[in-house]
Amino acid sequence: MVGARPNFMKMAPIVHAMARRPEQFEQLLVHTGQHYDANMSHIFFEELGLPRPDINLDVGSGSHAQQTAAVMQRFEPVLLEYRPDWLIVPGDVNSTLACALVAAKLGAKIAHVEAGLRSFDRTMPEEINRILTDQISDLLFTPSPDADQNLLREGIDPAKIHCVGNVMIDTLVRLLPMAEARLPALRAKLNLGDYLLVTLHRPSNVDDPATLTEIMQALQQLGRDLQVLFPVHPRTRGKLAQLGFADEQPGIHLVEPFGYLDFLALQAHAALVLTDSGGVQEETTYLGVPCLTARPNTERPVTITLGTNRLVESTCPALVQAARDLLAHSRQSPHTPARRPALWDGQTAQRIVDVLCEAHSCSKF
């Protein structure tokens, strides 16, 4: 099951790993259509080498309750028709919880990829999705030991928990050479020197006018130090227009969202990344790129303890100070090797498929 763009990067390696074992796995790929940007979804499927979805529920956007209910209503007939042995759900979006609930009530087994992550902030809808999905899953594939500990504290049977690593890194490792090949053309097209790459989407940052103003004021100041490249989603662009921020400002390039390969290339060579995305925190950790996360917490603490990530308040003074501190440090120590968490090695999907085979007493290849 895939629902939103981050799911594509998580499911693609698993789809590829199972395809290499056709006598053991028959796959059905369901796209809930939770993400509204059909053009960007098409690009992601193409770049990741994912097959066209067998079924598209075409749910679209809506409130959390509307979206979750719509996925459940449209997914139930699919599960009743095909009766799969396992439902694999990745991540923490509404589609993840909705499909898992349907499967649990119909008696299908559930494997949750990226299980056990916790921000300990229940005001985040994703936190609720994570907790509930983990409680009803039969196999829990975790990316790091801290996730294992979270599940054990919540009373999950240890036999269900498998620390397999980060499946998103499988996609990064496979496609990084292709992304690197795109960099010269991107630099020329965007006229890039040293740049700060920005990606923001959480409502706490982009829907609150005061917070978004603080962030943009910080970017204006940082734009005097280096170029600021900000791929802006349509909803955020509308918010910026309402606040009086023009599309082009000195030092700031507000551009259309990139496909996966272009964004990965730009991420890998950024002087600094500012984000509120969990996946970007993980990717910058693997790449060794300094990262500021504009949030009060993170469900991926390993990116802070082992990686390059730092939490920062979404205010102009805090953002400017933290960015300048990180930039100064990285310029003083430009060749510090990245400290990558264990099992973030590009082989996570293979480990997931091995566990699924064991669950059905399949022989390993």
Can you tell me about this structure?
The chain has 15 helices and 13 strands. The chain is an alpha/beta fold and about 375 residues long. The chain folds into two domains: about 5-165 and about 345-360, Rossmann fold, CATH 3.40.50; about 175-330, Glycogen Phosphorylase B (Rossmann fold). The strands form three sheets. A seven-stranded mixed β-sheet has the order 9-10-8-7-11-12-13, with helices on both faces. A four-stranded parallel β-sheet has the order 3-4-5-6. Helix 9 (about 210-220) runs parallel beside helix 14 (about 315-330). The mean pLDDT is about 90.
Write the layout of secondary structure elements.
Elements: H1 5-19, E1 30-31, H2 38-48, E2 55-56, H3 64-82, E3 86-90, H4 94-106, E4 109-113, H5 125-136, E5 139-142, H6 145-153, E6 161-163, H7 167-190, E7 195-199, H8 203-206, H9 209-222, E8 227-231, H10 234-242, E9 248-249, E10 252-255, H11 260-268, E11 272-275, H12 278-287, E12 291-293, H13 302-305, E13 309-311, H14 316-332, H15 348-359
Parallel strand pairs: 1-2, 3-4, 4-5, 5-6, 7-8, 7-11, 8-10, 11-12, 12-13
Antiparallel strand pairs: 9-10
Helix pairs in contact: 1-2, 1-7, 1-15, 3-4, 4-5, 7-11, 9-14
